[in-house]
Amino acid sequence: MRPFGRFEARRAFIKNSRRMASGGHRRTLLSRLKTPTYENTGSTARDHLASERTFLAWLRTGLGFVALGIAVERFSQLDISALLPPQPATSQTPTKRQREKAYQDKETVLVGALLGTGSGAIVYGVTRYFSTLRLVERGLFKPAYYGAAGLGLAVAGLAGAIYWSSGGRNMED
């Protein structure tokens, strides 16, 4: 197999782009967003090990989100009033009960989002690992742009939702 240098890779990419563009105006947005596939000229063993490390990182990330979701769910069930010294009996106003119910609903959404993000990261990591495994065996490589971007958006969305939720809670009190 002859080495695949920088200029050959560029020529192959241009040739592939022209071949895809020959479809005329019928190219969809999805076909324009497809990730190019490059020839893998490195060590196959090294690439398998790198792919395995990446898979384990996706797995760790997913398990971290799942564990955080379970922890939030468990701590939301904790009865803090049982740990505090007894207070004089006061009746709760309906608005306070409604606020507690709204907090429980927000916690349920947060737990669902954390568990969903964690499960999604694990599923993506598994599918990406096996697709990369097949490509490396054929001597090809396909960069992963959308997985990391998707996880980044999910984390940013969760962080924004938590910030907005806690900011709203402070304003109500």
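Next protein, fold it too.
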Amino acid sequence: MTRSRKREASRSGTSGKLRRPKSKPVSENIEDMKSVGNSKSMIETQKLQKVLAQAGIGSRRKMEELIEQGLIKVNGQIAELGARVSLTDRVEFGRRRVDVSGTQKTRIILYHKPEGEIVSRDDPRERQTVFANLPKPKNAKWIAIGRLDFNTSGLLIFTTSGELANRMMHPSFDTEREYSARIFGELTEDQIALLLSGVELSDGFGQFEVCESIGGEGRNRWYRVIVKEGRNRLVRRMFESLGYQVSRLIRIRFGSVVLPPRLTRGKWLELKDNEAHKLETQCGIESQADVLSSTNVQRRPSRGAMNAKPHYGERASELGKPKRGSSQNAKNKKSIAGADRPQFVKPKRKSSRVTKSTKSRPA
């Protein structure tokens, strides 16, 4: 005990020993912890299908089907449709544990699909799939936002958020899909007006929101078309209803996301966190980007992939990299070193050597 404490104890008339504060009984502490835990779980509980969709397993509709089939367990018991879970619950899908903390950031990848690939993981004909060229996410899986048929190329968006995929693909949101189509022949003004007003197809009514000519040579003519549906081969079938065959079809935009001009076929790039958060905000989804930004190092904002100004992030798949050993690579290294690193100029040191006088000495 220090002298000051001894002095205070002698003045107050108490003994030299300090009294410890009385602690609550163990039973009371346990009851307090239970009440706090129950209040937190009541506040933070969410629907099971929503939590599974946010974890990137699939859309809400698909999650409801899995719950009805008894493939989802909560705390070791088979879950029922309508169940709610909190952050402390253990959710399992098969042998895999699902992270329900809600702190996983949404990842979004843009992929330039070439012709000759399918948007499916399982193909009985064992054709090349688009998922073979994508990186493997940790504790999640890629969900394709929209599909492209085997002979169509262009923009494909992949995300780990099932809720974002559902928002962008659901017909009620009227998400625009823009294509460049090359056909054999030239449309007349009446035919363009008919496509804009709508034509009858085998599975219902089909309509172009925009249909305009953008050039071409000879019999091949290019047209820019916009649709708000994702039905199978819709653009091709609408041209075929008028007797025109589509020789090439490229998707250049999906919603507000535009295919980057320098993103070559078979390559992908990942959006930065602020760009993914912007896309979620446009779709009316609350993200964890604000929570994660307080812990991550903030990076310099760059041009986004929205509004036809894409960027090439850190995870871009070897876009525009020069070959090893090339002179261009060496020049790039020098320019990067000169631009990023500060230039330090060493101060001139005074010479300690005595200089000889140029005057002549006396004899």
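About the second fold: The longest strand covers residues 246-254.
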